[in-house]
Amino acid sequence: MKTSIRNLRLLILVVAAFCGLGVAQEAPPEKHVKDIRTEQTQEVILASPLCQRTRENPHTASHIRSVAPATLEPDLSSLMEKSDEVILVGDTITSTEAISPSQQDVVKYYDVQVLRSWKGSHKVGDLLTFALPNATVRCTTSLANGEPTFTTLSGVSGLKGPVWGAFVLFLRHSQGDEAQLTPGLRLTGGDGLQGMFQVSLDLHSHICNVAHPRKTGECSAFLEASDIPVVDLYVRDPLSKEYDGMPISSFLQEVQATADSLGYATQANATK
User: Residue ranges of the domains in the chain?
Assistant: First the structure.
């Protein structure tokens, strides 16, 4: 009888542990720009402690975050190894600014569509959202110059220009305290700034432009044959010397070769 009771208790513990493991492994739902806008309306942002503090200051408020050199990856291989997602995307679909969970900074979220994937769970055609720790929010409803705003900048020298065009992105999930700044996906290196390679599309390259939607496979094929140079957007990126200014077709070959050397499978281009 004692043996049966002991076995029953053991069975209950095993079942409970199994159920607990299932709950722990269940990933939180992925948030996109529309979800973030719903949560952080203008009213919510204006009422936030961050904006309240900003309005008390007669000058524009900002927070310049330091970037630890140790967070920069020295080569494409290590950048890819540290990444959870390595993808080619078209022009950004939409974006929004929001206050970070810590209430100490503001970040910008971008929605993009996956055209090609070398690593990660997102498939071709998926909508993916990532965050940059560089953003500005207005803390009044007025659009006049000089009205209180709050800006977060990561590093004195951050990005070379605005985020637009097509991109090869190296992304990873925020870990630990990082989620208090950029929950979800962020650029892999440089405290959230290293891992964005831009293809500046001109007016004649609107095959990849969300204003002129085309099949994702057509955009990917266009870039694979294009001589448009890649722009490594992060000023301090050590990879700039090797890849900044390289034709996108050559850079895509470099990314493919790196993925092959690390044993990552490439998803086929979409035809839809």
Answer: 68-133+157-262
